[in-house]
Amino acid sequence: MTRRSLRVFCSAAALTATLTGATACEPLPDPLPTRHPVPLPAPAPPSARWIVDLIGTLNLPPGCPKPDLPTLVVLDTDGRDRAVAFWPVDNLDVCHAVINHRGEAPTTIWFDTIEDLVPRTPMPTDTTPGLDSYAFTAYRGPVESITVVGDPDGLVGPVRHRTVDLGAGALVTFAAYHYRIPPTGRPLSFSLCTPDGTCRDAH
């Protein structure tokens, strides 16, 4: 349709709308995103089988499928009792788990839309003074490194991250970090910063 014919069409539609009380030439809503699987470039190592087996015995949130080694990404683990892992449901949603067998905190599994996870301040899994806590977040695009700025005293280890190709050139970097609330309960104040100088509140 040419620009001229489009104007004629809208003018005619406007006349019809005047007679019928309808609104003419309103923009069409954006189509809903198309869901598709997200194949990972490599499966999780065989040493992660205990994570898959454990998650398979738990009640998962609605929308979360049970992972297997080809769909699982392990960000951090001690290889025995503790792990932080995620598995994409598709290009729009992701499930992530914090696993703890040491009795300090229960294993917790979440279902999140990637669109909501990217801009949100990470939520800790536990805020009990003196106990370990973990947080999970995501960034649009590839991120080469993530550093902690501010009050890193409670950080137990470096930020672990992995970039995933969602398809059609869309990349998302998922990250997790392990920290410990001081026994005094003193609030921690630190930020996660990327090489481009962008920082976000981490706690």
Question: What is this entry, summarized?
Answer:
This protein is α+β, with helices and mostly antiparallel strands. It has helices at residues 3-20, 49-56, 114-117; strands at 73-77, 82-88, 93-100, 108-113, 132-140, 147-150, 160-167, 170-180, 190-193, 199-201.
Blueprint of the fold:
Blueprint: H1 3-20, H2 49-56, E1 73-77, E2 82-88, E3 93-100, E4 108-113, H3 114-117, E5 132-140, E6 147-150, E7 160-167, E8 170-180, E9 190-193, E10 199-201
Antiparallel strand pairs: 1-2, 2-3, 3-4, 5-8, 6-9, 7-8, 9-10
Model description:
The protein has 203 residues and is α+β, with helices and mostly antiparallel strands. The protein has one domain. It contains 3 helices and 10 strands. A 4-stranded antiparallel β-sheet has the order 1-2-3-4. A 3-stranded antiparallel β-sheet has the order 5-8-7, with no helix packed on it. It has a 3-stranded antiparallel β-sheet with strand order 6-9-10, with no helix packed on it. A hairpin with a 4-residue loop joins strand 1 (73-77) and strand 2. It starts with a helix and ends with a strand.
Structural features:
single chain; disordered N terminus; alpha+beta; four-stranded antiparallel beta sheet; three-stranded antiparallel beta sheet
